[in-house]
Design a protein that fits this description.
Length: about 300
């Protein structure tokens, strides 16, 4: 947390500017606006050297738990049935994607003298948040990993949805946050998310603040218990928190020193483990197999 009033004031301004960037991205119809807008603005501030004030890592769990719980809601009984029908395809795509990503990681490590572990975390299909958590657990600087994963996902979430928008029309950007007030049912979902995170942390499982809420929320939804998703405002705040923190991990030396990945990240495979989360919204299967984290796929 900030140690001086000056640092605290800067962070308040940073989050306000990040929210404004998210709003601009949303108004222009860009995908993942409340994540990418703050990420771009925060990264620009830290890469340019405007500030060195650290964004508190304690802000990350709020975003992770909120997004994970929201993703878990899509695991309805109908989605579970669809998952069983698609199980062979899902497993096959996951295996193929994993093999190709592993080969790319090995080639990258040998070509750049990068640690094999860092190459795997930098190239394996996942979201920047999960990749950063894994990198920290392995003692790897999260900045280069976040940069690699962000570039990979940015290519997907910008090029693919924008192509779909150009074909089928731009999405409606006029949704009002005020139309979805926070209710008691939302509080129950928040309690589930916190409980799942605490349980996974107690069990010392990996990435508890994301996988815990995801598992609990998905289990409840699979048993047919219907809970409303978080209001748009809550989801936007969660993504702003994640995007701002992710952007703050970028530093100038990531692009000027050997610490960073010296070669551009090329998408290792056009497919990855598909997600059952598309069943609820009936998103075409080709969207669910695009490499990315749960939050990225949900936003698509």
């Amino acid at each position: 947390m900030p140690t001086t009033p000056k640092d605290a004031a800067f962070l308040v301004g940073l989050y306000a500017a990040a929210a404004a960037a998210g709003w601009v991205f949303a108004q222009t119809g860009l995908p993942l606006p409340w994540m990418l807008g703050p990420l771009v603005l925060s990264a620009a501030a830290y890469v340019s050297g405007v500030t060195k004030v650290k964004v508190p890592v304690r802000t990350r769990p709020f975003g992770q738990m909120t997004v994970a719980a929201q993703v878990g809601l899509t695991f309805t009984p109908a989605a579970f049935a669809s998952l069983l029908n698609l199980a062979p395809l899902i497993v096959g795509l996951a295996v193929v994607s994993g093999i190709i990503a592993s080969l790319v990681a090995i080639i990258l490590a040998r070509a750049t003298d990068m640690r094999l572990a860092q190459a795997f975390v930098s190239t394996f299909p996942t979201s920047p948040v999960e990749a950063a958590v894994i990198a920290e657990r392995l003692g790897i600087p999260p900045g280069p990993v976040v940069a690699a994963q962000t570039i990979r996902i940015a290519m997907i979430v910008l090029l693919v949805p924008m192509s779909i928008y150009l074909i089928g029309g731009m999405p409606d950007t006029g949704k009002a946050f005020a139309a979805e007030p926070f209710a008691i049912s939302h509080a129950r979902l928040a309690i589930l998310a916190i409980s799942g995170a605490l349980l996974f942390r107690f069990l010392r499982l990996s990435n508890p603040y994301f996988l815990g809420p995801l598992a609990v929320s998905a289990a409840v939804s699979a048993f047919g218990v219907e809970l409303p998703p978080f209001p748009l405002l809550v989801m936007a705040l969660a993504q702003i928190a994640l995007g701002t923190w992710l952007g703050s991990t970028f530093r100038r030396n990531l692009f000027t020193s050997g610490e960073a990945c010296d070669y551009p990240q090329v998408e290792p495979c056009p497919i990855s483990a598909p997600s059952w989360i598309s069943a609820r919204r009936r998103i075409p299967l080709h969207i669910t197999v695009l490499p990315g984290g749960g939050s990225d796929t949900l936003a698509r």
